[in-house]
Amino acid sequence: MSNTKVSGTSPINRRTLLKAGLATGTAAVAGGALTGTARADGDPLITEIQDWNRYLGDGVQARPYGVPSEFEAHVVRRDVEWLTASTESSVNFTPLHELEGIITPNGLCFERHHGGIAEIDPANHRLMINGLVDKQLVFTMEDLKRFPRENRVYFLECAANSGMEWRGAQLNGCQYTHGMIHCVVYTGVPLKYLLQEAGVKTNGKWILPEGADAAAMTRSVPIEKALDDCLVAFKMNGEALRPEQGYPLRLVVPGWEGNMWVKWLRRIEVGDEPWHHREETSKYTDLLANGKSRRFTWVMDVKSVITNPSPQAPVTHGKGPLVISGVAWSGNGRVTRVDVSIDGGRNWHTARIDGPSLPKAMHRFYLDIDWDGSDLLLQSRAIDEMGYVQPTKEELRVSRGENSIYHNNGIQTWHVKTDGTVENVEIS
Amino acid sequence: MSNTKVSGTSPINRRTLLKAGLATGTAAVAGGALTGTARADGDPLITEIQDWNRYLGDGVQARPYGVPSEFEAHVVRRDVEWLTASTESSVNFTPLHELEGIITPNGLCFERHHGGIAEIDPANHRLMINGLVDKQLVFTMEDLKRFPRENRVYFLECAANSGMEWRGAQLNGCQYTHGMIHCVVYTGVPLKYLLQEAGVKTNGKWILPEGADAAAMTRSVPIEKALDDCLVAFKMNGEALRPEQGYPLRLVVPGWEGNMWVKWLRRIEVGDEPWHHREETSKYTDLLANGKSRRFTWVMDVKSVITNPSPQAPVTHGKGPLVISGVAWSGNGRVTRVDVSIDGGRNWHTARIDGPSLPKAMHRFYLDIDWDGSDLLLQSRAIDEMGYVQPTKEELRVSRGENSIYHNNGIQTWHVKTDGTVENVEIS
């Protein structure tokens, strides 16, 4: 795909970047005095009556379920064909560069499937709880909707998000480098209520959620997490889960890696030890430089990325006021601070976190600057309420090597050139 | 429409309700012990492998922009044909009984048009600020996106929401009685930045926002509100505004009646007095019993409604644990408490407000009860941070008569019958 050209990976390229000299953009300013950017009067598009101001438009029966404007047709999930062998076991990416705020619209939430999308009639769906329980239970969807329910905003990030970037700047756009994440409001039943109903035996220390899709996805989850904040969710952003997100039922595992959030949830087995199934051994473990693997790297650590400007969203208006926008998140709780650098990490400015700040949810940040038109090396660095500071990619490589593609929460660099185009680069 | 039959309006009907005796449902219980509702083991839908567990499903290229499951085709906006003469100047309703949490999906946000949906290419859209300003300005969409922006969750309620209920219980479902409301995350530029850029003259006391649709909707807004929390918004729930919600630009007037939130915003004129245009004189004013009208009833006062169970969402599982769910909101700020009655207002239980509590946003509340199968008369009563208590419909009629259809925030009553069906009624 033209949007995914490999670039900026060679040492030469890095040297070139350094020789070019780092940004001299002026410090961040608030308020953005825009004198001069507003068009002069006499623009016929405002002084003349336009057709849409002259004729009746569609009425209220045109779209019982609404869709975006035809002028937004470019705002879609995209995949990278060469990443995977099949589309049934593959991934597509959220267009982060087109979005704002902290909520991802349901139609744009990235997808990751291991056996394609299961199409399930909720009337025929069941959830079984079995294993080390006093009473094996089978619930219909109606049964589940009789338990007390909760609504929580959580991000969901794939453990492999940014994985292609371990070995250097690869994919030219934040949709591809960071788009395996979304953030929605989930409505569901706390899993602890269902486990209490079944009665977990004293030797029940782990659960194994199982999906009803062709891959029958399974992961081992410690009972402490299951009894803490996990939800058995049936709605996202107010409406039913989308088919590609597990309709009619998905497990929500707040702050932990995405593939534990089992979709099309059909069974929860309680056991006394982890199962070590395929998706937690041959996959979703981090192979270290010494050949050993880290086991059970569940939490998605603090991370951030600048979404605008970025390679897919260049600066088209020239120098002057520029809104730098981005997202940050942490599986450990709230993001308490985000710093932004426009000179590749030499100087940092505290960004403005705007909108609700909720634990284990996406946060939106801004830095409003007055761009002098010189080269910028944009970076963002998030800090969470545990005091964890987002590391550089170099620091990650020193501690974990380059064998793994998982859990890359390193700092991303965008090179904004004088012509406004943006490239994915690394500096060292 | 079959969903909108007129019922429960005659005194006889009200007496009948009283004779039937009020609910004896037991008090609210938390946790909902569900022994017995879970199906016995041996259900082939869980013990046997199903087709969707056996075959690969659609891959990640199937839907670049996702849509709901085919099994959710009934979750749509609906209009009431006899309410209006044309569909271009009409309204449809949010299916509140199908939703959860506090965010309304963009595709289900109710519509109210006065000249149909304007279809606008954002490249050809302009916003002019003129009148009593130092410098008349015309902004392109790109210009506006260079100002600092904010993200805020706000409800938008039409002043006529519940208007048909002034004269008694009319429409049989909360989609029709309360569905002229939605709540989304707006992203936009604080209007005060644009007005500061233009420079409001000392005698500039009002603004007149104007729409680019065929109705050229205008309303007078005091400068104090314009400089307080109004936004010029270009995104809702993270993505671009939907065409029916004003794409590419809409004025957000937090907590105030919906038709002031001018869609397809093309011009903001600054003046020294209100304009008294058609939509704030012949319409959107409250005619009192004495023949005089209340002028400028901007704030949408505290209000709530039980969404489940309700006439469109009957109880299908018989007695035992029952989740009573509803929404509450106030144009004055946060909702601090919601009380729920199951016996027509004789006894009140404090409901559980769940999820984010944000000013001028929708709140979700629950009362989890153990239903004994007897008749219920469900009511909810919200209280906001100003201490304002949602009134009964009788109290509203005493103070304002029955001439107006606007600003009905009275307490709604649902009659849950022993067979689980639900009817819109009034008791007195």
From TrEMBL, chains A, B:
Coiled coil: none annotated. GO terms for molecular function: heme binding; molybdenum ion binding; molybdopterin cofactor binding; sulfite oxidase activity. One of its GO terms (biological process) is sulfur compound metabolic process. Residues 296-412 form the Moybdenum cofactor oxidoreductase dimerisation domain. CDD domains: bact_SoxC_Moco (cd02113). InterPro entries: Ig_E-set, MoCF_OxRdtse_dimer, OxRdtase_Mopterin-bd_dom, OxRdtase_Mopterin-bd_sf, Sulfite_DH_SoxC, TAT_signal. Residues 114-275 form the Oxidoreductase molybdopterin-binding domain. This is Probable sulfite oxidase molybdopterin subunit. It comes from Polymorphum gilvum (strain LMG 25793 / CGMCC 1.9160 / SL003B-26A1). The lineage of its organism: Bacteria, Pseudomonadati, Pseudomonadota, Alphaproteobacteria, Rhodobacterales.
